[in-house]
Amino acid sequence: MRRVEETQIAISPVGNAPAFQRVTSVDVLRGMDMFWIIGADSFVYALNRMAQTPTTQFLARQLDHAEWEGFHFYDLIFPLFLFIVGVSLVFSLAKKEVSGRRDVLSRIFRRSVLLFLLGIFYSGGLSNAWPDIRLMGVLNRIALAYLFSALLFYFFKPRALAAIALGLLAGYWALLTFVPIRDVQLTKVDLALRAEQAGDINTAMHLRENGNFSAVKDSPAWAGAKQIFYSTVDRVTGKYGKGHNVADHFDFQFLPGRKYDVFFDPEGLLSTLPAIVSCLLGVFAGLLLRSQSVSANRKVIYLICSGIAAAALGWLWNIQIPVIKKIWTPSYTLVAGGYSTVLLGVFYFIVDVWQARTWCRPFMWIGMNSIAIYLASNMVGGFRKLATRLAGGDVSGFFDSHFAKGFGEMTVSAAGLILAFWLAHFLYRRKIFLRL
To answer: Strand pairing partners for 433?
Structure first.
């Protein structure tokens, strides 16, 4: 944590302040994205429990991830952040023309490594013994996507970048579609059923009863899962089900440490490839915003039209390969990238073209210190948990009994958001920003 005189256009893991005017809408959009991560979703959940109307039920569903296939609003949060990373790095690395190659590459690698280590810390750090340590998570994926996108942006021209992005998407699609995998679904229910059919009641019992054995490699449940997996001889292709696809099977075999979904990870190894494309889509948008030859109004038109086209192409591709966030399918990459581009166009029009900024200041505070707010939320167990100490218990009960059932919970959620905004404003007012 350090004091700086000027804030960055890029997210905190990216370089020095640019020499040109900042694009405020990028900060605002990042802050709006973080707003849902740090507690706005719990406010809507509480509102739904209090009101129980079709509208609140719809909003509550949209603020939860799709079970597997499909797309909810909450499935946009992570790829939108990656997209903004790509937009930001265009500006933060704009001084490459005057900086030496060694200096630029050193900054890229240093920030990537530090962010990756922060990701391990966020997921529990060294509080558990190996192998019960998660190596891949949200911050880890951001670190890898930033690393490769920044290197590609530094070394290649826009046309080559477009070809690389298309190649990554096509290559990942080919892996998911044509590479044969064992015909086994890596879920505890399916593995337990297979163990029972093989007469291994002990393994079936462990798989059904033990929900926290994912990193204990010598446990009976894990050993049984490996035995079932490697003894399966039938091969299939073109499978995209949960635990029954190339990405999940690859994680099971090659991703060390603890995995979020027991046998595989939503931020796994292979699915990082299309996540890099999500970041590169932001790079293309950033190049457009940085262009001096395109008017502001035309930038808005190009962003919105290209975003609609990308999302439409993604939903068309959904016919062949489903939109699935947890393995970041190519169709999901285009849908999320398209929506992100449209949002950037809308925010750019409102905030930077119209100059309507009074309403968005709280989101700008968060957006300019997104990593700090994200880590602070983790360390205090979530701003809502901290707010429970101030507005929970009898206070929450009073609101429930005197106003409406669920109003107390909504009050706690609102208090958590106020705490988050207060911290963001406190850091902003003192010009304190977390830089890596």
So the answer is: 2
Contacts of 230 (CB under 8 A, 6+ apart): 182
Residue 294 identity (one-letter amino acid): V
Rounded distance between C-alpha atoms, residue 275 and residue 405, angstroms: 42
Q: Which residues contact 138 (CB under 8 A, 6 or more apart)?
A: 78, 119, 122, 267
First vs last Cα of the chain: how many Å apart?
9
* Banded pLDDT at 69 (limits 50, 70, 90): very high
Length of the chain measured in residues:
436
Cα distance between residue 193 and residue 203, in whole Å: 10
Structure tokens at 328: 């970041």
On whether the CB atoms of residues 72 and 64 are closer than 8 A, the answer is yes
Tokens 């719990």, located at residue = 42
The DSSP line for 70-120 is: S--GGGGHHHHHHHHHHHHHHHHTGGGGTS-HHHHHHHHHHHHHHHHHHHH
The answer to whether 260 and 268 are in contact (CB under 8 A) is no
Asked if 86 contacts 280 with a C-beta cutoff of 8 angstroms, the reply is yes
What is the spatial distance between Cα 181 and Cα 348, in angstroms, rounded to a whole number? 45
Residues 6+ apart with CB under 8 A from 179: 237, 246
Query: Cα–Cα distances in Å, from 195 out to 154, 227, 347?
Result: 51, 10, 53
* pLDDT tens readout for residues 383-397: 888 888 888 887 788
Cβ atoms < 10 Å from Cβ of 155: 11
The three-state secondary structure class of 69 is strand
Between 330-347 and 296-317, two packed helices, what is the crossing angle to 10 degrees?
Answer: 160
Torsion over CA of 230, 235, 240 and 246, rounded to 10 degrees? 50
- 28, 130, 321, 362 from 338: Cα distances, Å: 18, 39, 17, 26
302 C-beta neighbours (distance < 10 Å), count: 17
Residue 306's contacts (CB-CB under 8 Å, 6 or more residues apart) are 338, 341
**β-bridge mates for residue 235, sequence order:** 182
Among residues 326, 370, 365, which one has the least CA distance to residue 139?
370
261-289 pLDDT, tens digit each:
889 999 999 999 999 999 999 999 999 99
Residue from 44, 31, 38 nearest 72 by CA? 44
